[in-house]
Amino acid sequence: MQVKNLIEKEKFKLITGEEGITAEIEGLYCCDLLSWVMSHAKGGDAWITVQTHMNIVAVASLLDISCIIIPESIDIDQKTIDKAKEENIPILSTNLNSYEIFCEMYESGLR
């Protein structure tokens, strides 16, 4: 599954530019503690977090995360959006909660 496939589902809204939307999603990781994410997430994961500050882009870029998913329609700092565009890291927003995002991904075939 590619990031753009999530966008096509209409439950996920692309917040950043289209750069990086052809990245493959190979796994899904959910955590808000950046140091924990840095030590446990894997390249190709889509990352669910309620954190919206610029440091999430740095972590995603460091790990080659396929995209960042912000659940529950949480507002995202403009500086974070700008930095994500600069680093070609797609940020998606959804009104779904983390559990519902996992269910969506599972139903889409991500195992």
Would you write up a description of this structure?
With 111 residues, the chain is α/β, with parallel strands linked by helices. It is 38% helix and 15% strand. The protein has 5 helices and 5 strands, in the order αββαβαβαβα. A 5-stranded mixed beta sheet has the order 1-5-4-3-2, with helices on both faces. Helix 3 links the parallel strand 3 and strand 4 (67-70). The longest helix is centred in the C-terminal third of the chain and has 10 residues, at 78-87.
Summarize the structure.
The protein is α/β, with parallel strands linked by helices and 111 residues long. 38% of the residues lie in helices and 15% in strands. Helix 3 packs parallel to helix 4.
